[in-house]
Amino acid sequence: MHHTIYPLYNGTFTVRFQELETPGFPRVDDIPGYAFLIVDDDGGGVVVDTGFNPDNVPGVGSTCTRDASQEIPAALDSLGFRAADIPLVVMTHMHWDHTGGMEHFTGARFYIQYFDFMQMLHLNPNEETYYCPDHWMGLLDRVVPVHGTCGLKPGIELVRTGGHTHGHQAVRVRTSEGVVVLGGDSPFNYDFLWKSISEENWQKYREGQGARFYWKEGMFGRLREWVDSLDVDVPYIHEKMPLREIHKLGDRMIFAHDPSLKGVVSIPDLKN
After folding, report:
1. Is the pLDDT of residue 41 over 90?
2. Which of 57, 31, 78, 34 is nearest to 171 (CA)?
3. Average model confidence (pLDDT) for the chain?
4. Contact indicator for 102, 49 with CB cutoff of 8 Å
5. Does residue 270 lie within any of the structural domains?
6. CATH code where residue 236 lies
7. 103-141: per-residue pLDDT in tens?
8. How far is residue 270's CA from residue 80's CA, in Å, rounded to a whole number?
9. What would you measure as the largest C-alpha separation in the chain, in angstroms?
């Protein structure tokens, strides 16, 4: 079975930490965000990632740009799909800029690597700001935990790559022009951005404008209870697939923040 991939442009975001005396923090400007719709020969749809929520861009003075047509439900509507009717959603990982639209997929099962949840239970200080549990804590009953490589449906395979997060996964999609790999955030590691903020300034952030980006009381306990209920017996080990090996997973690689996707309607290009 062959599939067609439609990039769903979700706008851009800029992360800043103004007023925190962080001269070493480089600005992260105008990052484009994409989710993806995969349509098979029979017209069935799978969505990969769900974009960001403009109300949950962390930092101080952070901004985003998006118009109504770039909301994920609207982008799907333009292609003849309703978010509520999508049966399968794959999350490459659970960072805030990928989970912001999960609430729209009211009938979907979410395929997420188990190790992404395990990592959340072992975060370093301030790393909780990478995640927004309000996006997904109420959806855990529809999460399908994945361990390693998993065949989702004919022509679509999930491959845990680790690296960006411990449960980061790529999606291999067979198209009429070969295998396309939706690589999520595989090449990126933002640790240096957050480490450039001093502990003193992190404390100011947590006590001030950044307070809402930290997890509410009880959230970690609720997540621990859910993870324990899975009764999974697999060693929790972070193994990172080298980027050169990720590239070998297919004939073409696409990333979630790739500016070269601008103007791309479909893969393969159906106009040709």
Report:
1. no
2. 34
3. 94
4. no
5. no
6. 3.60.15.10
7. 999 999 999 999 999 999 999 999 999 999 999 999 999
8. 16
9. 56
Strand partners, 140: none
For 37, residues 6+ apart whose C-beta sits below 8 A from its C-beta are 5, 6, 8, 45, 46, 47, 48, 75, 76, 79, 81
Structural domain span for residue 234: 3-261
- Tokens encoding 205: 């952030």
Report the number of distinct structural domains present in the chain: 1
CB-CB contact of 46 with 90 (8 Å): yes
Contact between 79 and 266 (Cβ < 8 Å): no
Binned at pLDDT 50, 70 and 90, residue 40 comes out as: very high
Letter for the amino acid at 100?
Answer: G
**How many residues are there in the chain?**
272
* Range of weakest confidence among 14-28, 91-105, 127-141: 14-28
